[in-house]
Specification:
With 248 residues, this protein is of the alpha/beta class. It is built from eight helices and four strands.
C-alpha cells in the first residue's frame, strides 16, 4: 500500500504553527497508461506540497483529487469536473481560509490540464499577492535539468520519464513492473484540445518511462523544493497600494 499522502495534523498542530500561508495540492483522477495509477497526479501534487509545507512551516491542506481531465475522456477510470467547478471550489476554500485568518494560498498543481488555475491565480492577484501557482513552467524546466532527464517537457507529456521517476522515488509500490516497455512518442499534438489524447496514444502514455529512475525523482523533487522559495518571497511581500489581506 502507498504511504498516507494526506495531512494528519490536528487543530492543535495548526494552532501552534499559526501559518499565514496554506498549501493546496490539486491532483486528478485520470489514466496514466498501464503502469501508473489513476491517482498519479494527486500523489505527485501531495509529494511536492508536503515538502514545501514542511520546509517553510506552512498549513498543508488535503488534496483536490478530481479536476479537469477532459482530454483523457474515453480511457477507463478517468473522472473529471468542470473548469467552473474547480474555479468555484478553490474560491470557496480561499474564502474559508480568510475567515480563519489565512490570507495566502499556494496551489500545487499536479495536472497540466488544469488551465483554469492560471486564471484563478491571476484574478486573485489583481490587488495584491494572494495566490501562487506552483510549480511554474520554469520550475519544472529547472527540475528536469537538475535531475538530468533525457526527454524534454514536450516529449514527456504524460506518464513518462518525470512522473515515473517521482513515483519510483516516493511511491514505488504503486508502479507496475511493466512500466519500462511503455515508451510512446507523439511530440506533435496540434489538435489535442479538439481531439483529446486518444488521437495521439492508444496506451495513454506520451513519453519515455523506460528512462525513469528513483534518483532522477529525488533530484527533481529537491529542485522544486528549492525553487519554491522564490514564490514564497513574492507571496509574503507587502500588499501594493496599502491593501491589507482583509481588504482583498
Amino acid at each position: 500500500m502507498a504511504a498516507v499522502f494526506v495531512t494528519t495534523a490536528t487543530f492543535q498542530d495548526e494552532q501552534q504553527r499559526a501559518a499565514n500561508v496554506a498549501v493546496l495540492p490539486v491532483g486528478s483522477f485520470e489514466q496514466h497508461g498501464p503502469a501508473l495509477p489513476l491517482v498519479t497526479d494527486t500523489l505527485i501534487a501531495c509529494l511536492i506540497a508536503r515538502h514545501i509545507a514542511d520546509a517553510h512551516a506552512l498549513f498543508l491542506l488535503p488534496p483536490l483529487t478530481i479536476s479537469c481531465s477532459h482530454e483523457h475522456a474515453g480511457f477507463a477510470g478517468t473522472v473529471s469536473i468542470s473548469a467552473r467547478t474547480l474555479h468555484g471550489t478553490v474560491e470557496d476554500i480561499r474564502e474559508s481560509l480568510r475567515r480563519s485568518g489565512i490570507s495566502k494560498l499556494v496551489l500545487v498543481n499536479g495536472h497540466g490540464g488544469n488551465y483554469v488555475l492560471s486564471n484563478v491565480t491571476r484574478e486573485a492577484n489583481v490587488e495584491g499577492s494572494h495566490v501562487t501557482l506552483f510549480p511554474a513552467r520554469d520550475d519544472w524546466d529547472a527540475a528536469r535539468r537538475e535531475a538530468g532527464l533525457t526527454t524534454t517537457a514536450s516529449e514527456d507529456m504524460h506518464a513518462g520519464e518525470l512522473e515515473t521517476s517521482l513515483l519510483l522515488y516516493a511511491h514505488p509500490d504503486v508502479i507496475r513492473e511493466d512500466h519500462r516497455p511503455q515508451d510512446h512518442l507523439a511530440s506533435t499534438r496540434t489538435h489535442l484540445l479538439l481531439t483529446g489524447m486518444r488521437a495521439y496514444t492508444d496506451s495513454g502514455v506520451i513519453g519515455r518511462p523506460s528512462l525513469a529512475t528513483p534518483e532522477k525523482g529525488e533530484a527533481a523533487l529537491a529542485s522544486l523544493t528549492a525553487s519554491f522559495a522564490g514564490h514564497l518571497r513574492l507571496l509574503d511581500r507587502p500588499q501594493a497600494g496599502g491593501h491589507t489581506p482583509e481588504q482583498s
